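re: that complex we talked abt at group meeting.

here r the seqs, copy pasted straight from the sheet so there may be weird spacing, ignore it
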Amino acid sequence: MPIASNSGITMEELQLGGRNHSLPLEGLKHAITPIGMHYLLTHFDIPLVEAETWRLEIGGLVAKPLSLSLDDVKARPARTLPVTLECAGNGRALLEPRPLSQPWLEGAVGTAEWTGTQLALVLEEAGLAPEAVEVVFTGLDRGIQGEVEHAYERSLPVAEALRDEMLLAYEINGQPLPPQHGFPLRLIVPGWYGMTHVKWLRSITAVDEPFTGYQQGTAYHVRDSEEEQGEPVTRIRPRSLMVPPGIPEFLSRTRFLPAGPCLLEGRAWSGWAPVERVEVSANGGETWSEAALDEPLSDFAWRRWTYEWDAAPGEYELCCRATDQAGNVQPLGQEWNYDGVCNNSVQRVKVVVSES
Amino acid sequence: MPIASNSGITMEELQLGGRNHSLPLEGLKHAITPIGMHYLLTHFDIPLVEAETWRLEIGGLVAKPLSLSLDDVKARPARTLPVTLECAGNGRALLEPRPLSQPWLEGAVGTAEWTGTQLALVLEEAGLAPEAVEVVFTGLDRGIQGEVEHAYERSLPVAEALRDEMLLAYEINGQPLPPQHGFPLRLIVPGWYGMTHVKWLRSITAVDEPFTGYQQGTAYHVRDSEEEQGEPVTRIRPRSLMVPPGIPEFLSRTRFLPAGPCLLEGRAWSGWAPVERVEVSANGGETWSEAALDEPLSDFAWRRWTYEWDAAPGEYELCCRATDQAGNVQPLGQEWNYDGVCNNSVQRVKVVVSES
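got the structure back, here u go
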């Protein structure tokens, strides 16, 4: 991945930024993100899939390969789960120097109710062979990245693939998946960053050695340089975001509000352990106060937080930071990495408070 | 509106580009754009509106002011119309130098089926006074632009407002408007650029002189400098776009395909008159060939075009251009203007064809 040599966003990044989209931060008011406000990253093109001819092939190291139609999948036991999805590259454009890829600021997140059937049941029916170590999920989307032509595919270790919460999902928020979210079927891997939730699934293949395809073996690693192997990206680091208070100025998005009590609110999540604490700062992170927490929507979805701020006239940099039960805390600044992934540094919102 | 002093996109533009989103061009395969793929521009924040307490106030120079609930609006005769909407700023980021605002490339467009009640019937019931010259539409979204705090509002001359096709719409593609498309009610002005289709409507006001609010009197003009008044932006200029053929390279979005017959396809539209011709060029606009045209979806929606391209190995710049019945043709290059609006220059798609 090349690194930007200047501070201006390049036309290539802009092309990606125009195709993919963020949750506008006022969308954090919704516990369940409405379709069309949820973040969306598409590596290649969104495939146009005919439900009638589509099949899901389950094969490789299994006793009984399966070929399922969409109706076959829907005939199985259904489960609905609210899940927070975040792109591993969220925050990339805030890094300096900037890895050249999708230039996310902070909104590459969303929470939806995904309905599908348990992956474990399908794998059980197919009969995973004892020598299987990973399960590879292949999408119908195809393109060139890292100078390699490939279908988008990612793997999970068998033990992860067999977890209860893994879903083969055909509905979002009670509706059939729209094309951009993976119609007719996608993988949902609660707690993991978005790259693992393979869309437009066409096959699931059990294999006897770790999968090394581009999106798994090369991309999505925390590393300092291209030469380094680094650590693979897996679960979502804790993050909290706030609904920017007041009203915006169109271009700068600076926020303006009158002095007085102001309810700050937002959402916080972590893929490692439940969020147990959210703090708020009105001075760029010098001092912190405890926010109140609502119950999480599920074990794998964000929880709402609120904080009563008594806003006096002046200029502020509002921040929030989450801590999870595993002791992970959002950093004030980000440790740079070559892929620009796993950036969970605290959000900073510029606010101007006027006399009321 | 300031002008960018360098070629790199600024962080302020990136913030807007991340909030707002384009139709990914493969989305042109859909006659009706799925929710979540339609382009979206929000000047300020997306308001969170409670349907139960929301009212639409129709007032100003009318005989009988009305205050309507959402149920009142829905109880009126309903009409569904496929309409192509395009942002007036589509293509802005292709201008040199670049006006600093939402940095659209080419995808700020979409076609949806909008269901609502005719604006003319509501205005008739309220009894427009003879001295009314314009009707002002005010949204619930509020912010600061051009150093003025205001609610988003735009006007139409009375004769335009009374046209049959103007809708007060509460559904998109058969579903209640999602928050980002203007829930619970928005204006639909078929044939006009998107800035006129006021979302989150809260009032409709008949006035006896031309409305001069920021979004009408200052913004959205074709002009050479800030000092000039310029011509107001109204109807959509003709444009055609193609689905980029082949498969993409992730970062550059250059397209790769094997030699052989390749069906190029896309959509074309104009708000001035029906599209009567689409031409395709494989050499950057030096020579052109006629594309075949399907029927338009409605008087106010795009029509599909196709062209059988016999792709030989090599590198190409594919282009398409539309002509409407009023004789308007897409230009090869764009005439610059200060606001970066009404840019309908031809699309250019880089394609590499390999030996098959």
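couple things i noticed - The domain at 239-354 of chain B is CATH 2.60.40.650 (Immunoglobulin-like). The radius of gyration of chain B is 21 Å.
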